[in-house]
Every structure is written in structure tokens, then in C-alpha cells.
């Protein structure tokens, strides 16, 4: 009896230690929100910067707003870039140094304007960068924007003359590649949306971060694409740690399914996260991850703030005790 008690006590202590140890992990990534809405607020559209804290190089996850997001981050009250060791370049202001020297690549989820407008508009003063995307997404960029009609062709493909500032890199779904000039690796997964969208799984050693472009729920889209991401992540999480994920909630729960147009609500997100949780071997694993909510639609109509409504509905639906954070332009999170 005594032996059994001792055994149980040791087990409890080990579990408590493991949990404590996990929640005390040193942060591995820095995430900066450059744009938090999914429209219609120009100057604050879907875009995030991510870097490993072991380096000063970011990747941009979508590019709806770039310069405006950097400027908000540089405001005194935000101090978002205070720990970044800035490159020395007397020619440029600080926002230009961050933009040109410290953003090394774009990862574009899909070709909708609210995810690329910042990259297009700021391209005349950008430095050479690769654009990583699924082939259909790169093709949309060429056909729709970099075509010498909507915009000059800053890429290395498509309509001549090609300005060769952006190197278009086609990703193959489910194949991992290194992101140039960073220590990060990326694996793309296709997502369901009116045009093909993408989830990017980013890895650095034993740490994982995931960025989801716009996506509808599997139960509505009927393509099982989110399930494929959850399965891959659950497999990776057998020996790696998911530090955080950015995922969209465009509308509140009152939005009918036939008007979702490839987007999520709080209830649909929770259903997807429950599917994910069911696949995990360690059921506490998700509790160590921050779930960052992006793409909330800004609304000009009178009435309650969509952010407040969505935050409240997420809290109500949160049966897994998850750590939800609403993305806010200029915000820096250590994950
Ligand atoms: Zn969007
Ligand atoms: Zn979209």
C-alpha cells in the first residue's frame, strides 16, 4: 500500500513538474501584428512578422498592410521593435531599415487584395526578396497585379519587362523548405476558400508556429483540408512544441453558413480546434499554445464592436481552456 502511494505521489510530482516546465519554456518566436483586420480598414489589413528570437530576420506572413503596420509598431507607446538589433544604414529611416533589411521574405496565403495590398504599394522602395506561395497563388499575383496594368511587374516571371526584385518561389504542398536568409523552415498546406488559400507550418528546431490564411470550416467546405493540417501538426507535436498559431475568425456566430464565403466564426473555430485536440496524444499540449485571432472584419455600421462580440463568443465556446489573443496592429507577442 505504502509503495503504491509513493508511486502515485512520484507520478503526480512528475506530471506537475512537466506542466510547470512546459509553461516556463523560454520564448522561441516573436510575432508582430502589422495588420489585424480582414477588411475594410485600409492601412490595417492581414499581415504579421515572425522571427526566431535567435536572429534579427523576419518573414512576413501575408502583406495586407506593411509600412503602416511598421509605423504603428514604432510609435512610442508600442516599442514593438525595441529589441530588434537594427542594421546600420544611414540612407533610410528606421521604418525603411526594418522593411528593407529585416524582412527577408514574404509568405503569401492567397491572392485576395486584403492579403497583398501592402506588398504591392510599398514595392517601389522594397529590397529584393523571395515570395513563397503555392503555385496557384503566385499565378494569381502575376495575372492580377504584377501585369503592367494593375502594377509594374516587380517579379522574375510573367509579363516583360521583369524587374526581378521579387523571386517567385513555388511551394509544393506538404514539402518542407528552408526560408532564405532565415533559420526557419516552412511547409505549406492548401486551404479551402473561394480561391486557393494556404496554411504555413513554420519550424525552428523543436518549435512550431502555424499561420492560417483565410479558411472555411471543413464541415461547410467538405474538402477535409483543415483536418489534413491538424493531422500533420498532431504528428509533429509528438516531439515538438507548438508555440502558437494565427487563425482567422472573420464573422460572429450569427453569420449563416451559406454566407461564410470561406471564413470561420467562433463556434466553427472551436469545432475545428476540438477536432485538432482529439488527434493529440498529449491533451495538455494545446494549452501551451497561444491562439491568435486574425482577420476580424471591421464594420462601419452602428452597433457593438465586432472584436468585442467575437471575443465574448470565443470565451463562451472555449471548452478546452485555450489561450485566445485578438491580434492588434502594432502588438508584439513572444511565443
Ligand atoms: Zn482576407
Ligand atoms: Zn480571402
Give a description of the structure.
The protein is α/β, with parallel strands linked by helices. The protein has a single domain, classed as Ribonuclease Z/Hydroxyacylglutathione hydrolase-like (Metallo-beta-lactamase, Chain A), CATH 3.60.15.10. Helices cover 29% and strands 23% of the residues. The protein has helices spanning 2-23, 67-74, 94-102, 117-122, 135-145, 218-221, 225-236, 266-279, 306-317, and strands at residues 29-35, 47-52, 58-63, 103-107, 129-133, 166-170, 176-178, 185-191, 197-204, 207-212, 241-248, 290-294, 323-326, 332-334. The strands form 2 sheets. The protein has a 7-stranded mixed beta sheet with strand order 6-5-4-3-2-1-14. It has a 7-stranded mixed beta sheet with strand order 7-8-9-10-11-12-13, with helices on one face. β8 (185-191) and β9 form a beta hairpin. The chain starts with a helix and ends with a strand. The model is unreliable at 14-21 (pLDDT under 50). The site of one zinc ion (ZN) has 4 residues, from loops.
Amino acid at each position: 500500500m505504502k509503495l503504491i502511494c509513493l508511486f502515485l505521489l512520484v507520478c503526480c510530482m512528475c506530471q506537475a513538474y512537466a506542466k510547470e516546465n512546459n509553461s516556463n519554456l523560454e520564448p522561441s518566436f516573436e510575432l508582430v501584428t502589422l495588420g489585424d483586420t480582414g477588411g475594410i480598414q485600409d492601412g490595417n489589413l492581414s499581415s504579421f512578422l515572425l522571427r526566431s528570437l535567435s536572429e534579427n530576420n523576419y518573414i512576413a506572413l501575408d502583406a495586407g498592410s506593411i509600412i503602416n503596420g511598421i509605423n504603428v509598431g514604432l510609435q512610442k507607446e508600442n516599442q514593438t521593435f525595441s529589441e530588434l538589433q537594427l542594421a546600420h544604414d544611414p540612407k533610410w529611416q528606421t521604418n525603411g531599415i526594418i522593411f528593407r533589411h529585416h524582412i527577408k521574405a514574404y509568405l503569401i496565403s492567397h491572392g485576395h487584395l486584403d492579403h497583398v495590398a501592402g506588398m504591392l504599394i510599398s514595392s517601389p522602395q522594397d529590397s529584393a526578396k523571395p515570395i513563397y506561395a503555392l503555385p496557384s497563388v503566385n499565378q494569381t499575383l502575376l495575372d492580377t497585379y504584377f501585369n503592367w496594368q494593375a502594377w509594374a511587374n516587380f517579379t522574375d516571371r510573367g509579363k516583360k519587362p521583369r524587374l526581378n526584385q521579387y523571386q517567385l518561389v513555388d511551394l509544393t504542398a506538404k514539402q518542407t523548405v528552408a526560408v532564405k536568409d532565415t533559420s526557419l523552415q516552412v511547409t505549406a498546406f492548401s486551404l479551402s476558400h473561394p480561391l486557393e488559400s494556404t496554411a504555413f507550418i513554420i519550424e525552428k528546431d523543436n518549435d512550431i508556429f502555424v499561420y492560417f490564411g483565410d479558411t472555411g470550416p471543413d464541415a461547410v467546405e467538405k474538402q477535409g483540408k483543415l483536418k489534413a493540417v491538424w493531422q500533420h501538426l498532431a504528428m509533429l507535436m509528438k516531439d515538438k512544441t507548438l508555440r502558437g498559431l494565427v487563425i482567422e475568425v472573420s464573422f460572429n456566430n450569427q453569420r449563416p453558413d451559406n454566407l461564410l464565403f470561406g471564413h470561420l466564426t467562433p463556434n466553427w473555430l472551436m469545432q475545428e480546434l476540438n477536432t485538432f485536440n482529439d488527434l493529440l496524444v498529449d491533451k495538455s499540449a494545446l494549452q501551451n499554445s497561444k491562439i491568435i485571432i486574425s482577420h476580424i472584419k471591421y464594420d462601419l455600421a452602428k452597433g457593438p464592436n465586432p472584436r468585442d462580440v467575437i471575443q465574448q463568443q470565443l470565451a463562451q465556446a472555449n471548452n478546452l481552456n485555450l489561450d485566445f489573443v485578438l491580434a492588434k496592429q502594432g502588438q508584439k507577442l513572444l511565443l
